[in-house]
Design a protein that fits this description.
82 residues
Length: 82
């Protein structure tokens, strides 16, 4: 009986430790600073080649083209309305 009790206590302690580690990981992953860092790294990865460090001009040009297109659209709409 004593051995079963000590085994149960050891199992409970091991479960507490696993839960504590899991909670720490969740807190780290959900902190705003970590989320921002992860998003910045993802955006940088879209515009900079990770292997060479060179900018990805195709993605940069697509983004610039989209921004210019939206600006032109707003200017045209504004001229038509006025």
């Amino acid at each position: 009986m004593s051995k079963e009790l000590s085994d149960l206590e050891a199992e409970i302690e091991a479960t507490r430790e696993r839960l504590a580690v899991t909670i720490d990981q969740l807190l780290y992953r959900s902190s705003p600073k970590t989320i921002v860092g992860r998003e910045v790294a993802q955006i940088k990865g879209h515009y900079v080649d990770a292997a060479t460090g060179e900018p990805r001009t195709d993605n940069i040009l697509k983004t610039v083209g989209g921004v210019v297109g939206v600006i032109v659209l707003f200017v045209v709409i504004r001229k038509v309305v006025n």
